[in-house]
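Proteins fold reproducibly. Look at a sample protein:
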Amino acid sequence: QVQLVESGGGLVQTGGSLRLSCAASGSIFSINHMGWYRQAPGKERELVASIITSGGTTNYADSVKGRFTISRDNAKNTVYLQMNSLKPEDTAVYYCNANLRIAYISPSYNYWGQGTQVTVSS
């Protein structure tokens, strides 16, 4: 089966930086796009950033634009999220998402990682 494994979360102070990594592995035929979502306690899950595999087009939530940068290494099926100028409001569990096909005859499907905790102290 497909697995998405996140890493890089942790505890930082306001203004600090973290770099998240997510590697997709398993039975993967092709990946359409990958991205990062986050969910804070008591809040809905929200899109943080995403990137299209072919071409590299990106999009960001307004709250992180200018501070976060998403990138990918298609050869490694890996997506990164560089987070700078972190704020307490960024505290959440960050989930990696990949829209991919496991076979040519299969439709695209969303897969999720287990999540990595990011905590920003004030």
Residues 4 and 24 are 4 Å apart (CA to CA). The first strand starts at residue 3 and ends at 7. The chain has a mean pLDDT of 96. DSSP finds no helices and eleven strands in the chain.
